[in-house]
């Protein structure tokens, strides 16, 4: 149930402690707000069958060796400190570290490239030209709007009217040394009012990873001493203060019975707006939150806490995360949590685990937050991530019929059964396994990451355009599809016999999705194998020849039609933040965003790892 905290400051809210919070009774349906006609419908999902977990599938391959045993801990629910937030707990120190003597040495992550090798300046410049081509179109036709519409040369406010393209794109411009562009972006950012919007309840997952992550990353980059930073001091400081202003509004989303984050927040009334999940067979509707949504705060918000000195951000995100790494009931395979959690009780509602959309970045952040800062809490995150990686090797890293050397990551359905389906979003996992393997000195994880990255590259390398679809399926070891209708699909059969997979109807589009290219970046930087950079160049050429039009770049509707068939009228902000950044970094000198010093959020925004790097990340102690 939504709780009114209107006219109450965030930190007054954080100080409240009531018996209602300490002992949630939470089964009431969400407060009705349909009478407010400018709000869209809240997110909801309906399942038409009962959900019953399948716990009996045997392993399909070997497992990791020497991983720590994992013990579930009880999620705090009472007897917790009333400040700074009801029902919250944290292992974090009360204040920032005051010197690099307290920080561990940086773990070497990247391949030891010989001096002058590992990059390609000509190709990096080509990617930079693509950025400027798209950016100049945005400035001409849509500056100040959220995104450019590249088919009719107009702008649209589809992310709450704060100029998401500017905020999402600034760190890429900093890295590319586009100083005039950065100056223009900084000038706009300091004028944004993140406390209000006329566009309805704010979807806090994307707002956090795009806006807040972009602001914090730009601040870290400009304060690091590694990039040009001769900009007005007030504008650089505005990056951090704007991130705090936005976080103080997003934080109302954690004002739930459990502390799990809501899907949306009403920025006018400062109330969480809960999504729902319905199981039609039982006619039970739950106040629910998506796993990726509530589990993708820890990294960015830990960093914001350390930069600002305000531990509330860390504690809010840590509290929500505690339910995900202590799931109840247990997932079908250890670590592979489902996509929906009951926001009133903290219980897991579905068993559709894997690395796909809906759970992807929640798993991604576990190992990345451990890399960012090693504490007892982040060590638990790392251990839970290892459980997920081990289950991946055992149960869902599969080979399609007739292709024993091709590896795909299967999604699970809501009951936890293999679906022999993979989406583009899960392709980040190759890079995530590579990062974890390098960080933890586990070569078997690096091998898994290479196999997954190769599997995702298959969908780019075998289509007519050289771009990948949003989803694909395959025939299992018994030569059967998850959907029996596909067993007699002649076209799917022929394509799968040739390439190992087929593309379901409606999933043929490419809309600036970055995840396969993300893993190419990690593979290149961690293994040093030049083939990954060559694959990256092939992707860039495909983007430039297929998605580029006479205005900017646009989404492609069918990767298996000449020139992608028709286009869609959108240029997502993450084209600047992720696609072009990953491609540029593949071809830049490997010292640019060295993975030993930087950890990238799920929107590719780099944050400084808390390790001994001189004093470049100790902003509070150096006087900036």
From TrEMBL:
Q: Which reaction does it catalyse?
A: N(4)-(alpha-D-Man-(1->2)-alpha-D-Man-(1->2)-alpha-D-Man-(1->3)-[alpha-D-Man-(1->3)-[alpha-D-Man-(1->2)-alpha-D-Man-(1->6)]-alpha-D-Man-(1->6)]-beta-D-Man-(1->4)-beta-D-GlcNAc-(1->4)-beta-D-GlcNAc)-L-asparaginyl-[protein] (N-glucan mannose isomer 8A1,2,3B1,3) + 3 H2O = N(4)-(alpha-D-Man-(1->3)-[alpha-D-Man-(1->3)-[alpha-D-Man-(1->6)]-alpha-D-Man-(1->6)]-beta-D-Man-(1->4)-beta-D-GlcNAc-(1->4)-beta-D-GlcNAc)-L-asparaginyl-[protein] (N-glucan mannose isomer 5A1,2) + 3 beta-D-mannose; N(4)-(alpha-D-Man-(1->2)-alpha-D-Man-(1->2)-alpha-D-Man-(1->3)-[alpha-D-Man-(1->2)-alpha-D-Man-(1->3)-[alpha-D-Man-(1->2)-alpha-D-Man-(1->6)]-alpha-D-Man-(1->6)]-beta-D-Man-(1->4)-beta-D-GlcNAc-(1->4)-beta-D-GlcNAc)-L-asparaginyl-[protein] (N-glucan mannose isomer 9A1,2,3B1,2,3) + 4 H2O = N(4)-(alpha-D-Man-(1->3)-[alpha-D-Man-(1->3)-[alpha-D-Man-(1->6)]-alpha-D-Man-(1->6)]-beta-D-Man-(1->4)-beta-D-GlcNAc-(1->4)-beta-D-GlcNAc)-L-asparaginyl-[protein] (N-glucan mannose isomer 5A1,2) + 4 beta-D-mannose
Q: Which InterPro entries match?
A: 6hp_glycosidase-like_sf, Glyco_hydro_47, Glycosyl_Hydrolase_47, Seven-hairpin_glycosidases
Species of origin: Meristemomyces frigidus
Q: In which pathway does it act?
A: Protein modification; protein glycosylation
Per the database entry, which stretches of residues form a coiled coil?
none
Task: Give the CC-aspect GO terms.
Answer: endoplasmic reticulum; membrane
Instruction: Tell me what this protein is called.
Output: alpha-1,2-Mannosidase
Q: Which PANTHER family match?
A: MANNOSYL-OLIGOSACCHARIDE ALPHA-1,2-MANNOSIDASE 1B, MANNOSYL-OLIGOSACCHARIDE ALPHA-1,2-MANNOSIDASE-RELATED
Instruction: Summarize where Ca(2+) binds, as residue positions.
Output: 602
Q: Which cofactor does it need?
A: Ca(2+)
Disulphide linkage map: 427-456
Residues of the signal peptide: 1-17
């Amino acid at each position: 149930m939504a709780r009114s905290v209107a006219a109450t400051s965030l930190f007054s809210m954080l100080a409240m402690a009531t018996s209602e919070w300490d002992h949630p009774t939470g089964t009431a349906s969400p407060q009705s707000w349909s009478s407010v006609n400018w709000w869209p419908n809240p997110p909801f999902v309906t399942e038409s069958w009962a959900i019953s977990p399948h716990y009996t599938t045997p392993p399909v391959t070997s497992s990791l060796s020497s991983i720590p045993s994992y013990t579930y801990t009880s999620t705090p629910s009472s007897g917790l400190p009333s400040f700074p937030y009801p029902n919250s707990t944290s292992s974090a120190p009360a204040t920032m570290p005051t010197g690099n003597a307290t920080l561990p040495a940086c773990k070497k992550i990247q391949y030891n490239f010989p001096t002058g090798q590992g990059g390609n300046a000509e190709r990096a410049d080509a990617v930079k030209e693509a950025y400027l081509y798209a950016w100049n179109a945005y400035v001409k036709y849509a500056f100040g709007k959220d995104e450019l519409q590249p088919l009719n040369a107009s702008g649209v406010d589809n992310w709450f009217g704060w100029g998401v393209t500017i905020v999402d794109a600034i760190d890429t411009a900093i890295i590319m040394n586009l100083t005039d562009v950065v100056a223009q972006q900084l000038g706009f950012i300091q004028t944004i009012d993140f406390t209000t919007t006329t566009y309805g309840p704010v979807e806090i997952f994307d707002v956090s990873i795009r806006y807040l992550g972009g602001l914090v990353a730009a601040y870290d980059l400009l304060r690091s001493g590694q990039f040009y930073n001769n900009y007005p001091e007030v504008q650089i400081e505005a990056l951090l203060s704007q991130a705090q202003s936005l976080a103080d509004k997003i934080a109302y989303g954690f004002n739930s019975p459990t502390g799990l984050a809501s899907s949306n927040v009403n920025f006018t009334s400062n109330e969480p707006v809960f999504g729902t999940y319905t199981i039609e067979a039982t006619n039970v509707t739950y106040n629910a939150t998506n796993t990726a949504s509530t589990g993708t705060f820890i990294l960015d918000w830990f960093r914001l806490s350390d930069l600002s000195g305000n531990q509330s951000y860390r504690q809010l995100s840590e509290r929500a995360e505690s339910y995900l790494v202590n799931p109840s009931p247990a997932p079908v395979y250890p670590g592979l949590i489902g996509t929906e959690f009951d926001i009133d009780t903290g219980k897991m509602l579905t068993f559709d685990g894997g690395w796909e959309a809906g759970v992807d970045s929640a798993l991604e952040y576990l190992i990345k937050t451990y890399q960012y800062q090693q504490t007892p809490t982040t060590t638990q995150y790392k251990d839970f991530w290892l459980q997920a990686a081990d289950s991946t090797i055992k149960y869902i890293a599969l080979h399609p019929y007739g292709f024993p050397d091709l590896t795909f990551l299967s999604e699970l359905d809501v009951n936890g059964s293999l679906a022999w389906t993979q989406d583009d979003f899960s392709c980040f996992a190759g890079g995530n396994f590579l990062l974890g393997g390098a960080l933890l000195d586990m070569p078997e994880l690096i091998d898994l990451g290479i196999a997954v990255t190769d599997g995702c590259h298959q969908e780019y390398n075998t289509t007519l355009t050289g771009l990948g679809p949003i989803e694909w399926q395959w025939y299992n070891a018994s030569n059967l599809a998850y959907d029996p209708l596909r067993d007699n699909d002649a076209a799917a059969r022929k394509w799968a016999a040739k390439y190992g997979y087929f593309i379901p109807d409606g999933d043929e589009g490419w809309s600036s999705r970055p995840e396969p290219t993300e893993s190419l970046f990690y593979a290149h930087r961690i293994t040093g194998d030049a083939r990954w950079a060559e694959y990256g160049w092939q992707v860039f050429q495909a983007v430039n020849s297929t998605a580029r039009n006479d205005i900017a770049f646009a989404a492609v509707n069918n990767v298996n039609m000449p020139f992608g068939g028709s286009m869609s009228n959108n240029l997502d902000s993450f084209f600047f933040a992720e696609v072009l950044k990953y491609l540029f970094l593949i071809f830049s000198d490997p010292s640019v965003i060295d993975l030993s010093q930087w950890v990238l959020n799920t929107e590719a925004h780099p944050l400084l790892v808390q390790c001994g790097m001189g004093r470049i990340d100790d902003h509070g102690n150096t006087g900036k």
